[in-house]
Amino acid sequence: MRTAATWLVGLAVLGCSGPEASDAVLCQDVIQRLCAGPRCGVVEERLGVKDDCDGTLVARARCAPDDFVFTTPSRDRWLECRAPLVRQGTLRTAVPGCDNVSEVLSSCPDVEAFLKGVR
Prior knowledge:
- It contains seven helices and no strands.
- By secondary structure, it is mainly α.
- The protein has one domain.
- The radius of gyration is 16 Å and the shape is globular.
């Protein structure tokens, strides 16, 4: 039993190895997932985006520069709100379901406001 527990802890540690993603990368990752096609109607309705979803949201969030750092919302809050978007997988090709996108926008009004450019 102890061997199995040790193995699971080791596996968890290996799964978390590697450099931490920058705040800019995390911000752009969420935007890319929200804008992934086919785009959910709730993104257009709540965030007011159309054709250039990614570009519009990155510009509003001001997270294009590599030295971007979260303040409000915090990095921890951003990661918490990102969780529903990666339920289908963490690869960038994994497209979240519209129910997951709606969950983020409903349960994270601070993230929604940030993506609207409200400071």
